[in-house]
Write a structure and sequence with these properties.
binds phenylalanine, globular, two-stranded antiparallel ribbon, Hydantoin permease, single chain, mainly alpha
């Protein structure tokens, strides 16, 4: 078990360990699966610019706020609010986070299951010699089935639960530390292959040349949702992790470093995907299946592609695991600390419940594809509600809590580690937390919902 910290709680043991765990949470399917497909659906370069603006202006402040709440509260997402604002309704932000955690875990495990299936397909060399049409066909016939995708989803959920059961340090730190750098290396190799394909320039232009004519409130909301999803913020995952961070670690630095790493990896994934999309004559806006139809084409065009594809999908599955454990941990920490359920029981209960909801997400590509609410099937509905609505709303309330409810002296105490670190730009940070972030998030959220009308 991990070192004990304040009040005997588990703690991350080193600065490197925390960075890896927080980066492990942030870096996952959000960067490599979700980012490219949302960029593709949202028209490319203009989306990217808006996304980068949101990361800088809103993402980093919300992440820092979560760490502050968690480390000061020394509890799970809900308990930290109870502790810092006793007798107030702020704990409802934690409740919302737990709901969001369930939803995200449900659809996340669908895609993670697909990833596991692609590991086996890579090993079986199923993509060899296939045209891009045939590769599409393979994906279609797999993900619309009922049984196989469900099995993979369950296997993934079981792996997540198993890691959570082995505790904070041994479970999380160990896996994250060694493997993330390899994933980055793989992406660099794939990006190089992709941009040297014939016809690749068009993909780079799609990603990097902004065309604002395609931007509407839906695109802006999608950028906000993607920024929050990718940084793992807005639902208390980083409040929970923050409660495991030791008193001498520098929360500001961790927030900036994790956000930069997360963003670079998303862009790298974009550079690996889009040139290939155009080079192979595929469509950038084909949705959640994008990487599964594009990447096998790239591997086919690489010397050693057989081995690369196995390694890549294995690493992607591991990246997904280090994210899914941070989502499950939100629920498990709540159940154990607030309801006194044993860690074992809590993990099983949460994983089974999430797998149950997740099954509907998986089947919504197949037998349940005609079950829709306002044109979204179950998977799309959960993804939209959690990522684009609950996370921004959670983030909004989190910055309001830190900016307006907490005492500035407490915030300063937390970021300066009780005065031992020099805090630069404190007033700028407070201004962002009090005004810029809440107003910007509120405008994007409420405008896209039609609650207010900008222009
Ligand atoms: N950020 C993770 C990813 O990019 C997903 C995640 C969302 C994790 C919300 C925790 C909380 O894959």
């Amino acid at each position: 078990m991990a070192n004990s910290g304040v009040e005997g709680r588990d703690c991350f043991t080193s600065k490197f360990g925390i960075i890896c765990a927080a980066a492990g949470s942030a870096i996952g399917l959000g960067n490599i699966w979700r980012f490219p497909y949302v960029v593709g659906d949202s028209g490319g370069g203009a989306f990217l610019l808006i996304y980068l603006g949101f990361i800088l202006l809103l993402g980093i402040p919300v992440m820092l706020s979560e760490f502050i709440i968690g480390r000061r509260g020394q509890r799970n997402a809900l308990g930290s609010f109870k502790k810092l604002a006793p007798g107030k309704q702020w704990y409802l932000v934690g409740v919302m986070g737990i709901v969001a955690a369930f939803m995200i875990l449900a659809f996340y495990s669908t895609i993670a299951g697909w990833t596991l299936h692609y590991v086996t397909q890579s090993i079986a060399d199923s993509f060899a010699g296939k045209t891009s049409g045939e590769i599409n066909q393979l994906f279609d016939s797999f993900h619309t089935r009922s049984f196989l995708p469900l099995i993979w989803q369950l296997i993934f959920m079981a792996m997540t639960a198993w890691i959570i059961l082995s505790g904070v340090k041994r479970g999380i730190e160990k896996y994250a530390k060694v493997l993330m750098p390899f994933l980055v290396l793989m992406l660099i190799i794939m990006a190089v292959r992709s941009i040297t394909l014939e016809g690749a320039t068009e993909g780079l232009l799609f990603l990097f040349r902004p065309d604002f004519s395609a931007v509407d409130s839906g695109v802006i909301l999608a950028a906000l949702g993607q920024a929050f999803f990718s940084l793992s913020i807005g639902m208390g995952a980083l409040i929970t992790y923050g409660s495991y961070i030791k008193k001498h670690n520098n929360l500001g630095n961790i927030s900036v470093e994790v956000s930069i790493a997360d963003t670079l990896i998303a862009i790298l994934a974009g550079v690996a995907i889009f040139p290939a999309v155009f080079a192979f004559g595929l469509a950038p806006d084909e949705g959640p299946g994008l990487i599964f139809t594009v990447l096998p084409n790239i591997f086919q065009q690489m010397p050693g592609g057989y081995f690369f594809s196995i390694i890549f999908f294995v690493l992607l599955a591991i990246a997904a695991l280090t994210s899914s454990i941070s989502i499950l941990e939100v629920v498990v920490a709540y159940l154990t600390e607030e309801l006194n359920i044993t860690r074992h029981k809590a993990t099983l209960m949460a994983a089974i419940a999430a797998a149950f909801v997740g099954a509907f997400c998986t089947l919504s590509f197949g037998v349940l594809k005609d079950v829709t609410i306002s044109e979204l099937h179950i998977f799309g509905l959960l993804d939209f509600t959690a990522s684009n609505l609950l996370l921004p709303l959670g983030g909004l309330l989190i910055v309001i809590f830190v900016g307006w409810y907490m005492k500035p002296s407490d915030i300063k105490d937390e970021i300066s580690n009780s005065g031992t670190l020099k805090v630069r730009l404190f007033n700028v940070l407070m201004f962002i937390l009090k005004f810029i972030a809440p107003i910007a998030i509120a405008i994007v959220l409420f405008d896209s919902l039609g609650i207010i009308r900008v222009n």
